[in-house]
Design goal:
Layout lengths: L1 H15 L18 E8 L13 E6 L6 E10 L5 E7 L4 E2 L5 E2 L6 E3 L8 E2 L4 E8 L6 E10 L1
Antiparallel strand pairs: 1-10, 2-9, 3-7, 3-8, 3-10, 4-5, 4-6, 4-9
Length: 150
């Protein structure tokens, strides 16, 4: 009974005295938690290998209503060592990694090095995938992008 009264009092307090918190306010470190987005180019069972021309626009569109910051890019492949690049597309696509990322089978490869300002993705900005060099062996490249909310 006491629990119910306390819960009711708490709910009434929230209704009549709401916290003045905007959506952008950091609450309990929620915005600091990393999030992931993934993209797969090709398929392990594909009949043909990936080509240097297997670029893909709009692998991600920021529709969160707030900016994000990319903190890491990871990639792996089924075979070979294809080299990739991600581009921030804010109307003029630009490479975001300081160096092309050479993917590998197994544990994969990652980077946390970004061109200044390119890891900041505003609401409405897009990410594009660029196959720099497919290498003639890989049929699949898997990418995960780690980011935080600003």
């Amino acid at each position: 009974m006491l629990r119910r009264k306390l819960l009711l009092a708490f709910l009434l307090a929230i209704v009549f005295f709401p916290l003045n918190v905007s959506p952008q306010t950091r609450v309990f470190g929620v915005n600091d938690k990393p999030r992931l987005l993934g993209y797969i180019a090709g398929s392990d069972t594909a009949a043909v290998v990936l080509a240097d021309t297997d670029d893909q626009a709009d692998i991600y569109v920021n529709r969160l209503g707030q900016a994000i910051t990319i903190t890491e890019v990871w990639c792996a492949c089924d075979a070979g060592n294809p080299t990739i690049q991600l581009q921030k597309d804010d109307g003029a696509p630009a490479d975001m990694l300081t160096a092309n990322l050479a993917c590998s089978a197994g544990a994969g490869a990652s980077t946390t090095n970004f061109v200044a300002g390119e890891s900041a993705i505003a609401d409405g900005n897009r990410l594009d995938f660029k196959m720099v060099a497919a290498g003639g062996v890989a049929k699949r490249v898997t990418i995960f992008v780690k980011y935080t909310l600003d």
